[in-house]
């Protein structure tokens, strides 16, 4: 597989400038003391649409031909990719068609509508999502932009680690959560190009540990019946993402839901910023394996902050 080069990732970063924030990197001496290492948090919870997904969606939209753009874009997603694609389409002045399961959170549907996306509801299962999407694409001629298993999206997500390593080039370890693997794959690729000595470690919930099991088995083991508070990490690993993870990721560490909730609460209390449960997973995994990180400089991508404040787990 031909992965994007470092110059491709830099070009993507230039391409999406008008669509994204360069998010801040924050530290907390209190959390450093608890963790026994120096942590640099790359705050994608402050990104447009409240998540790193803004990057990949914008890159994919901007790489379409004028003819493709005219017909718009489509995807199926119950979460941040839905809002990210609707917003990228809105900024580019093109239509978006978003297939969402009927049980998708109201806050996510509201976001998609707010960005001008047309929502097409379906039954809450993968088969229904895929068949509904096929019908939408057939009807509109829109281009399907997958949420993570798509090189233009991965290339966009890789720009997050690019910013992190431009600001903090001397990191020993970079961490990201893993669900479908778009953020982790892009992060690992960027780190490999900029400094192959940097370790790339993912955090994953024990209740949705398909990446952990796949990584160890050397082949994709599909996600079945995931059960975790980290609702952004329920999906199975993408094929392209798994290739990148196999090539450039050093390890995947697990965290339980109570550990995830504790890490999430720690960030709220000590840093006064809002993060969603999926976003807390790498910190939770680090705190569960402190000896592994002792005295190291660790960059953690805080992936997003889209959480229903009426349903906080603490």
From TrEMBL:
Keywords recorded for this protein, A-Z: Lyase, Magnesium, Pyridoxal phosphate
Q: What InterPro entries does this protein map onto?
A: Ser/Thr_deHydtase_PyrdxlP-BS, TrpB-like_PALP, TrpB-like_PALP_sf
The segment(s) forming the Tryptophan synthase beta chain-like PALP domain are 17-304
Q: Which PROSITE patterns match?
A: DEHYDRATASE_SER_THR
Q: By what name is this protein known?
A: Serine dehydratase
Molecular function (Gene Ontology), one example = magnesium ion binding
Query: Which is a GO BP term held by this UniProt record?
Result: D-serine biosynthetic process
């Amino acid at each position: 597989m031909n992965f994007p080069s470092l110059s491709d990732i830099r070009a993507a970063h230039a391409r999406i400038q008008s669509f994204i924030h360069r998010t801040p990197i924050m530290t907390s001496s209190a959390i450093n003391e608890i963790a026994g290492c120096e942590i640099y948090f790359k705050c994608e919870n402050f990104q447009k649409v409240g998540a790193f997904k803004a990057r990949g969606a914008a890159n994919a939209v901007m790489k379409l031909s004028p003819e493709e753009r005219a017909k718009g874009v489509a995807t199926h997603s119950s979460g941040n990719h839905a809002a990210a694609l609707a917003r990228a389409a809105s900024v580019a002045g093109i239509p978006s068609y978003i297939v969402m399961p009927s049980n998708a959170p109201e806050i996510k549907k509201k976001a998609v509508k707010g960005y001008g996306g047309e929502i097409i509801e379906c039954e809450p299962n993968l088969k229904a999502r895929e068949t509904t999407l096929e019908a939408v694409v057939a009807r509109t001629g829109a281009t399907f932009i997958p949420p993570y298993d798509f090189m233009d999206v991965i290339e966009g997500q890789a720009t997050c680690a690019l910013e992190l390593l431009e600001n903090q080039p001397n990191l020993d370890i970079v961490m990201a959560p893993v669900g479908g693997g778009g953020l982790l794959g892009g992060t690992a690729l960027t780190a490999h190009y900029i400094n192959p000595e940097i370790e790339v470690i993912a955090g994953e919930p024990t209740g949705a540990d398909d990446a952990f099991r796949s990584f160890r088995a050397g082949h994709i083991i599909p996600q079945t019946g995931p059960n975790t508070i980290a609702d952004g990490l329920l999906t199975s690993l993408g094929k392209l993402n798994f290739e990148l993870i196999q090539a450039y990721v050093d390890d995947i560490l697990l965290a339980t839901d109570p550990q995830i909730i504790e890490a999430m609460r720690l960030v709220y209390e000590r840093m006064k910023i809002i993060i969603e449960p999926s976003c807390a997973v790498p910190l939770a995994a680090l705190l569960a394996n402190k000896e592994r990180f002792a005295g190291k400089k660790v960059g953690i991508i805080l992936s997003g902050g889209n959480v229903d404040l009426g349903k906080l787990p603490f």
